[in-house]
Q: What sequence folds into this?
């Protein structure tokens, strides 16, 4: 009976592939700014840590990150633009 149980478990594990789930480390926006220096740096840093655009936007919006004027929340389009723009190196 235990042999059948082991076979069933092996079949289930073969049928369901493992997926990599990236869980963001809980940090405040102030901690992220301290580490990455700019809002764009924070976005690039979170992306480098494995977050996708949607997750970055959601994470920063939940922390009530505002635009430069402090009037509107961070937009998804801004996150997307930062990730698609090539970083210019200082000379």
A:
């Amino acid at each position: 009976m235990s042999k059948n149980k082991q076979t069933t478990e092996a079949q289930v594990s073969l049928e369901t592939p493992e997926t990599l789930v990236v869980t963001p480390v809980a940090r405040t926006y102030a901690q992220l700014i301290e580490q990455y220096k700019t809002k764009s740096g924070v976005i690039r840093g979170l992306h480098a840590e494995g977050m996708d655009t949607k997750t970055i936007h959601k994470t920063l919006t939940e922390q009530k990150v505002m635009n430069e004027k402090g009037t509107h929340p961070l937009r998804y389009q801004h996150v997307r633009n930062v990730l698609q723009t090539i970083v210019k190196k200082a000379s």
The chain has one domain: 23-91. The chain has a mean pLDDT of 76.
